[in-house]
Amino acid sequence: METAKKNTIKPAKLTKSESSLLKAVGIEKQFIFDVQLAQRSSYLEYWVDHYEKGKKIESLSKGTTDTEWRKKDKNKNTTVA
């Protein structure tokens, strides 16, 4: 995850291999996002709510996750912690 000018979240673009792997383990629908933050953070809090026609129907999921800040080794094209 790299710092950005503003916080953004957008659907991740999965490779065919990544999509195939998810389907192979039985995941037909996935919600995978790329997140860029303007400031570093040690964790993210998230929630997913279901809306229909502007009305909240139900809360589907919520939780927190640790973030790992990594930098890319330009010489080796690998990610290091």
Structural overview:
There is one protein chain. It is extended, with a radius of gyration of 16 Å. A hairpin with a 2-residue loop joins strand 3 (43-52) and strand 4. The chain has 1 helix and 6 strands. The chain has 81 residues and is mainly β. The strands form 3 sheets. It has a two-stranded antiparallel sheet. A two-stranded antiparallel sheet has the order 3-4. Strands 5-6 form a two-stranded antiparallel sheet. The termini are close together.
Task: Quickly list its features.
1 helix, 81 residues, mainly beta, 44% strand, 6 strands
Strand-helix topology:
Blueprint: E1 8-11, H1 16-24, E2 33-36, E3 43-52, E4 55-66, E5 71-73, E6 78-80
Antiparallel strand pairs: 1-2, 3-4, 5-6
What profile does the largest beta sheet have?
2 strands, antiparallel
Distance between the termini: 11 Å
Helix content: 10-25%
Number of strands: 6
Cα shape:
extended
Order of helices and strands: EHEEEEE
The DSSP helix count reads 1
Which class of secondary structure composition applies to the elements? Answer: mainly beta
- Mean pLDDT comes to 81
Radius of gyration using CA atoms only: 16 Å
Q: Give the strand order of the largest sheet, numbering strands 1, 2, ... along the chain.
A: 1-2
DSSP strand (E) fraction? Answer: 35-45%
Unreliable spans are none
Summarize the structure.
By secondary structure, the protein is mainly beta. It contains 1 helix and 6 strands.
